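User: My collaborator sent over this chain with a note saying "see what the structure looks like." That's all I know about it. Can you take a look?
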Amino acid sequence: MTDTLPALTRCVLRIALAALATSAVAAPAAKPEPVTVYVGTYTDGASRGIYRFTFDAATGATTEPVLAVETKNPSFLALHPSGRFVYAAGEVDRFAGAKTGFVSAFSVDERTGALVLVDQQASRGTDPCHLVVDRSGRVVLVANYSGGNVALLPLGVDGRLEPASVVRQDVGTGPDRARQEGPHAHGIALDAAERFALVADLGADRIFVYRFDAARGTLDPNDPPAATLAPGSGPRHLAFHPSGRYLYAIDELRSTVTAFRYDAARGVLETAQTVSTLPTGFTGENTTAEVAVSPDGRFLYGSNRGHDSLAVFAIDAGTGTLTPKGHVPTGGRAPRHFAIDPSGRWLLAANQDSGFIEVFRLDPTTGAPSPVGKEVAVPKPVCVLFAPPPR
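Assistant: Without extra context I'll predict from the sequence alone. Here is the result:
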């Protein structure tokens, strides 16, 4: 009897532990919560402003888009780190009687996702086309395309915009007389430490580098002040690798991606490689638009307008260089922008001239995007912003 009880106890414990282990292994992963997606547009046609819909990252399903707020030419959007505010570049050349575009601040209705205008400020340059918010939520940096400059707008604790406190003018030209007659600031990226702000200038064939301090609200030219690309490249947008060691510029005019090694201590770029975004033998007209790196850092994507495709590249973790992996049609014309969802499983591509957003599933092994047959109808979509719930 005394020998039997311990043996029985041990047996019961083994069964219980095995059951717990099996339960833990079999427990399904937490289902991702649906997120709101905001879509910036051009309003020279049927569009009236920023649209919104809900995206289910578990299935790829979407709701029908509705107007989130009426506003003029919200061509690029950025989310406050709290999720409680959305900022939009108003891409126009006149605002409040002055030769400038504007930036709008909108508060997010936590229940519906609708947007409410908080305020607007001049962007201090014409045709603002890109903006970013620092992760502390202290400032907005905006690139003014026709103005050829970048401006820093401080933010209040209530998300309200203050007038621009710093404006930095780009300089330079390029060989394309139609597009590079002067500087055209087109995209801004902050490095991982947010010590430097990098500005892609399409007209000057340069990436200007600024020492950046959000707390002090400063933006000062670095030494050296810029990295130079091949003549006629026309750098448009930038994407950092998650490691912070590499930066990628998509070059609108030459349909290339330029890979840089990045010295985060000094804010210095060194060219590593330039690779075409087009398949061998393509002879039609094309300009590139957006560039993004997958959250795991293994793949890079770039959009072609003309070839109307996503170019896919594998990234070498040791060198940051790119290997072409093919092209996937975006299902429509002129994919101006695309975005990868926070889970890294989905990509949404905005086909500007076709008036819809195509939903793609990303293969975790190959990185290949596969269309799921879902088109989200939005007039003239030019920016896609995933917006997790406010915190």
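A starting point for your reply to your collaborator: DSSP finds one helix and 28 strands in the chain.
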